[in-house]
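Have a think about this chain, tokens included, and walk me through the fold.
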Amino acid sequence: MAKKKFNKESIKNIVIVTLSLCFFASLVVSFVSVSLRDLQEQNEIFEKRRNILEAAGVIGTGEQISFEELEREFSNIRIKVVDFDSGEVVEGIDIDAYDPIKSSKDVEASISLSKARDIAGLKRRENRGKVYEFLKDGEIETIVLPIRGYGLWSTLYGFLALDGSGKMVKGITYYDHAETPGLGGEVDNIKWKNSWKEKTAFDENGEVVIRVLKGRASPDSKTEIDGLAGATITANGVDAMIRFWLGEDGYGKYLRNYVFK
């Protein structure tokens, strides 16, 4: 009997080869993804911590820092978890393991915000948040608050730093967003971020007075921040998230309980 000739160009064989290649490629991608997951998570933690130090003024805006230097500086920070409804510090919680963003997606660990309350476009807010306190001689010198809210295209994630009185801004940074470069993406502009320093966040009655304008701020104003040219919606989003996180649904009660002087 004649041996059947192998037809490598047949539809059947083409499909088999294609599926085999796809399967092999998927195995490689899965292996690489799993292998790099720990490294990616470490990089995310590093970037967040670098932004916390930048907002607090420990490092300059845009300044790079080594892992060893970051760990040394971060060892001076006291991290707390606070209850937003009461403003009290939560005891007996694994601070390192607690993730406020994940909690905001858990119906048991968060609340749904009404349209009137949800000025930052969050939909849900976690019941507990983290605060980062920089201490000097046992006193709070700087406090850094995580902030987030919706801009034009994305949720912006960042940090706002206040001085030890809780009423003056020391800095602001964003570590994750998808706003348009050159427009809403100007939240990363060094000059714009520096313009927040030494602005007044609260008045003597504890009311939030800092505002991001649609246009230019008055040169003498202690409460106004320049808007973002061509990016009014993003600027409005930043203004709203600041008012939300400093307000009664955010860190307002905690600041009154523990920080305001």
Remarks:
- The mean pLDDT is 89.
- The first strand starts at residue 77 and ends at 83.
- Strands lie at 77-83, 110-112, 124-126, 128-136, 139-150, 155-163, 169-176, 211-212, 224-225.
- Residues 11-56 form the longest helix (46 residues).
